[in-house]
Write a structure and sequence with these properties.
This protein is α/β, with parallel strands linked by helices. It is 37% helix and 21% strand. β15, α12 (344-357) and β16 (361-366) form a beta-alpha-beta unit.
C-alpha cells in the first residue's frame, strides 16, 4: 500500500531525479527492472526501508524479495549489535558472485552501520562491487545517487551529517496493510555509554505534529487497524519545539482521529516517561495498554555507568503508577547482561527486579561492544562464558514469570485483532491490546477483523475460541 503527502522543496528535487531515473530505465529495459531491499535491525529501519521502496517504485523498479533476480539490491543496515554487522558483511560478500554474472546490477548499502566512517572506508576498499553507500542523514537522496551513478558510472559514497531538516513528502511503500509504522522523530540525545545510535542517527529531531496527524489520518483511511509511533525515544518528542506539543498531547491528537484503530509506540525511555503520559494511555480508548520500558539493568551502580539518568526506585515508581492506572497493562523491557564492570551481585539485582515487576516478556542481550562508544574502552574482566551462564539464568527466571502470566490468562476473554495464520492448520492468530498472541479456530476470512476470544488453554501458545 502506498501514500504520498505534499513534498518539501528538498523532496521535490529528489522527485525530479526520480523522474529522470524512470526515463533512463524506460529507455534501457524492455521489462521493468527489479529491486530487492533487505532490512536489518529495528522498526525504524523497517520504516526507512518502506520509504526507500516507495522511491524505487517511483523510479520505475518493481519490488522483489529475491536478490538472485534483482537488478538493484540494497542492504539497510543496523549498527546496534555486532552480530547484525557480521551478517551484513557475509551477505554482502555473497553478492560478489551475482555481480560477476550480472555486471549491470546495482548494489547499494545504507543505514546505521555505514554511517560509521571506519565501516564506510572498509566497504569502499574491500567491496569494490558496491556501487552506492549512503548514511542515515541522506536516505531521501537515493534518486539523486542512482541518477549520478547511471550518468557517470562512478561509485557514490555519502555519509555526511549536515542535514538537520526532516524532509517530508516522499512516497512510501508499506510492507503491510493492517499494521503500520509511523515515525514521529529521529535521532537521540541520551548517549547511553553502550549505544552507538546517537553517533549514527544524530541528535533528536521531531516531526511537525500536523505532518504526523496528516499521515495518521491517511493510514486510517487506507484501512490500517494498528499504528505504531516510532522514535529512538518517543517520550522526548517535541522538546525544544515552538509548537508546544509533547508526546502525551500528540497521542491525544491521534486518539481523536475517527476510526476503529489502535495506537502503540516504541521506544519509551524511563528518564522521560511521565505520569502525564501514563494518564494519557489510561484515558485514551485507542491506546493499547502495553508499555515497553527498557530497564537495561536492575543495579543503580550499573545504570549510572550506563548513563541512563534514572535509578531503579524511579523505574519501579513508573511501573507501579502504570499498573494503578491500567491494571490490565502488559509490560516488556530490554536487559543487557554482562555490561563492563557488572558483577554477579549487580546481575542478581536485575533478576530481583524482573521478579518484582513480572514482565510479560523481555528482550535480552549479552553486552556487545560498539567501537566509538564510552563502554568500548571500559574494563570488562568477566569472561564471555560467565556472562553466558548469567544470561541462561535470566532466561530461566523470565520463562517462569511469562509462563505464570500466560497461565493467568486462561479462562479470560480478550478483544483480538486477527493478523495472520496460526501454527496449526485451521487456526488463525491474533494479538491482544497487550500484544499477546492467541490462536483460535478460524479461516483466512478472519484476517484484519477484531474478535472477542476466550482463552481455553496454554500449550506452547495460548489457544482460544471466538465468542463474538
Amino acid at each position: 500500500m502506498n501514500l504520498q503527502k505534499s513534498a518539501s522543496p528538498l523532496m521535490d528535487e529528489q522527485l525530479a531525479f526520480a523522474e529522470r531515473v524512470a526515463d533512463i530505465i524506460k529507455a534501457t529495459y524492455v521489462e521493468p527492472p527489479k529491486a530487492c531491499v533487505e532490512t536489518y535491525g529495528c522498526q525504524q529501519n523497517v520504516s526507512d526501508s518502506e520509504h526507500i521502496k516507495g522511491m524505487l517504485l517511483k523510479m520505475g523498479y518493481l519490488l522483489t524479495e529475491n536478490s538472485e533476480e534483482a537488478d538493484f539490491v540494497l542492504f539497510n543496515t543496523c549498527a546496534v549489535r555486532e552480530h547484525a554487522e557480521a551478517r551484513v558483511y557475509g551477505n554482502l560478500g555473497a553478492l560478489k558472485h551475482l555481480k560477476r554474472r550480472r555486471p549491470g546490477m546495482i548494489i547499494a548499502i545504507c543505514g546505521c552501520m555505514v554511517q560509521q566512517q571506519s565501516v564506510a572506508d572498509r566497504i569502499k576498499k574491500s567491496y569494490p562491487y558496491v556501487d552506492i553507500l549512503f548514511g542515515t542523514h541522506v536516505t531521501y537522496r537515493l534518486p539523486e545517487f542512482i541518477y549520478n551513478l547511471l550518468m557517470g558510472k562512478k561509485r557514490v559514497f555519502n555519509i555526511e551529517t549536515d542535514q538537520k531538516e526532516i524532509v517530508e513528502g516522499g512516497p512510501v511503500s508499506r510492507d503491510g496493510d493492517l499494521k503500520g509504522w509511523l515515525p514521529i522523530m529521529y535521532g537521540c540525545n541520551n548517549f547511553c555509554t553502550y549505544c552507538i545510535v546517537p553517533y549514527v542517527r544524530g541528535r533528536e529531531r521531531s516531526r511537525a505534529p500536523e505532518e504526523i496527524i496528516a499521515e495518521a489520518r491517511e493510514m486510517v483511511a487506507m484501512g490500517f487497524k494498528e499504528i505504531t509511533l516510532l522514535g529512538q525515544n518517543v517520550n522526548s518528542y517535541g522538546k525544544g519545539e515552538a509548537h508546544g506539543v509533547n508526546f502525551a498531547k500528540l497521542i491525544r491528537m491521534i486518539n481523536d482521529i475517527e476510526g476503529d484503530f489502535k495506537i502503540r509506540f516504541m521506544t519509551s525511555h524511563p528518564k522521560d516517561c511521565t505520569e502525564e503520559l501514563l494518564d494519557t494511555m489510561a484515558e485514551c480508548k485507542k491506546v493499547c495498554h502495553q508499555l515497553h520500558l527498557p530497564m537495561q539493568s536492575g543495579s543503580n551502580r550499573i545504570l549510572k555507568i550506563m548513563n541512563r539518568h534514572y535509578d531503579i526506585e524511579r523505574y519501579l515508581h513508573l511501573i507501579d503508577y502504570a499498573r494503578e492506572k491500567m491494571p490490565d497493562i502488559t509490560l516488556t523491557s530490554d536487559i543487557i547482561v554482562g555490561f563492563p564492570g557488572e558483577t554477579y551481585d549487580d546481575f542478581c539485582e536485575t533478576v530481583k527486579v524482573i521478579k518484582r515487576v513480572g514482565f510479560t516478556s523481555l528482550f535480552t542481550f549479552i553486552y556487545s561492544k560498539r567501537e566509538g562508544t564510552p563502554a568500548a574502552i571500559m574494563e570488562d574482566p568477566i569472561s564471555r562464558e560467565e556472562k553466558g551462564k548469567w544470561f541462561t539464568e535470566l532466561l530461566k527466571a523470565q520463562e517462569e514469570i511469562s509462563r505464570k502470566g500466560y497461565g493467568e490468562m486462561v479462562g479470560k476473554t480478550y478483544r483480538v485483532l486477527c493478523d495472520g495464520e496460526g501454527r496449526v492448520p485451521g487456526r488463525m492468530s491474533g494479538r491482544t491490546d497487550g500484544n499477546v498472541v492467541i490462536e483460535f479456530e478460524a479461516d483466512a476470512s478472519a484476517y484484519g477483523r477484531y474478535f472477542l476470544v476466550r482463552v481455553n488453554e496454554l500449550t506452547n501458545v495460548l489457544c482460544g475460541t471466538i465468542i463474538d
